[in-house]
Amino acid sequence: MKKKITATVLSQKEIAPRIFDMWIATDLAACAKAGQFIGVYPKDRSTLLPRPISICQVSDKKDALRIVYRIAGQGTAEFSSYQEGDSVEILGTLGNGFPTEAAEGKKVFLMGGGIGIPPMLELARELPASTEKQIIVGYRDDQLFLKEDLEKNGTVYIATEDGSVGTKGNVLDAIREQNLTADVIYACGPTPMLRAIKEYAAEKGIKCYISLEEKMACGIGACLACVCQSKDVDHHSNVHNKRICKDGPVFLAEEVEL
To answer: What is the pTM of this model?
Structure first.
């Protein structure tokens, strides 16, 4: 169920340069799933459209959502100024999440790069107890936001672009260096990373689910501003595309072209 509501900020802190961690009290948490997102509306009406931000964590009582986001423009800069008790308009929950049932009894990779790391936390929390969780995350440098949270929910392997922590390089470099294997892959991050993971999964014969990042307008599938090319014809538009906000953001990797 999607609805626009006024929620309340419970807490907020900067956990890395220009990366903020906010908890929001909202009953939308009751139906939120890993891989879904919310639209957050700026109070400045000159920036009309909601900003899509992935769900990082759902509270144990299902009464609050955690979002971790990077300042990328005017809207997110405004969000970073919010304090405990402030109101915030949100639309949610949006999109389709990760299919956790695919991990039952399996060895999996949870792969996050940059601001694609936050969704991996709630996914790790939601996966079945029988799942062997290997969390491979890629950072630019030694600002390892969410590292401790992730370590509570699986075995964490780190790659950094500058080589300051873990493997020097990207998440695939870390997998190869550690000789890791998996039956299922879940991934979120920038398109070049997802493209490489899709190729790796195809080469190894591993089922792979990817969460695509894209600028959005409506967030509910009406405007077709966030389409990606798909293998099959979309029943909505009758062309080879998928709406990331509505049909995704999570897709089976082989369904979409990157």
So the answer is: 0.90
